[in-house]
Fold this sequence. Notes:
- This protein is mainly α.
- The chain is built from 20 helices and 2 strands.
- The protein has helices spanning 5-26, 29-50, 56-78, 82-88, 108-116, 123-133, 139-145, 150-164, 175-194, 205-221, 226-239, 242-245, 265-281, 286-299, 308-321, 325-339, 341-349, 358-370, 374-387, 391-403; strands spanning 198-199, 389-390.
- Helix 2 packs across helix 3 (56-78).
Amino acid sequence: MRNTPEIEDLLRRNAPQVLGALVRRYGHFDAAEDAVQEALLAAAGQWPSAGVPGNPRGWLIRVASRRLTDALRSEEARRQREERAAALTPRDAFTAPPPGERAPREDDTLSLLFLCCHPDLTPPAQIALTLRAVGGLTTTEIARAYLVPEATMAQRISRAKQKVRGVRFGRPERWEQRLPSVLQTLYLIFNEGYTATSGAVLQRRDLAGEAVRLTRMVHRLLPGDCEVAGLLALMLLTDARRDARSGPHGELIPLDEQDRDRWDKAAIEEGVALVTGALARGRPGPYQLRAAIAAVHDEAPSPEATDWPEILGLYDVLLTLVPGPVERLNRAVAVAMVHGPHAGLSELDVLADELKGHRLDAVRGHLLERAGELEAARAAYESAAAQTLSLPEQRYLQARAARLLD
Length: 406
């Protein structure tokens, strides 16, 4: 009997909690992950016909614990260390939990995220390990999403696991200092899903959806953190436009040409409520400000009705916190919309030495076109098209350039 979507969702939601419980109790990240996978396979084979148990998470932990303790015993036996293996194995690992036993702590998932975002790991390694351990994606799925060979991704994940081996499981003593790394990892995953940096498709919806799901999880665990709420709001407000971003053949449709009736109104309402509540509670952070900018775009009934002065003001505040070249590039667009394209082009000139890649030339082409400098605009579009690895973006930029030849 095949799994139902409800069972698949239940398994995915419980997988990080089960892995977190095993790593917290036993350590052995690799072995614990293998045991969880075996438990998930067992559930997928039994639950559709036998029914979902009353405590599915407890069932999974119990089965995974059996697999893990068996594996540890076998390994220790081969090394003739049975006494040590027995000492590491809880006596109740093979029995059902007694009535009233508490479920695994809800912060196991957050602890697992902290482990995957350990500062000794590079951002690509943090992303890969997070998707593997917390998101439950297979190595094949992660490799496909990032367009790298499966062997390369497997090595990346394996090296990441080696680096966190022996790290104490649980929230770090100064966990607030590591939370920005967790949020940045989730944000990078979302951005790659929302606008793929390379390949034949504009969006990888499963990747963006996974980032939203994981951020919702963090928000449930830390409901009072304004930046967590801001990041979730930003994702929802941005992802609300995804159905309108692509044409019937996968072509890119820019924001000012999208059919706003196709935007997800429920996601916009939820995102606006989240960012409004977060901003009202305290000092604005970068994710809250980015979400506020997205909310201004989403609440405008038409491109002409967009409140660009408000957006520019929000970017001014954002740059006091994050004065990076990408933020300044986005602000240059707002400057152009408020003060005219030449003012925006002046802003771009100071970024030429800091920001390389197609986005600077794409924005330059757009502003030059608005300024009536069509030949220069065409050259900028062509330069941007030659630099991007995304085929939908490349085709869009080439079409903009070709249109200026008429």
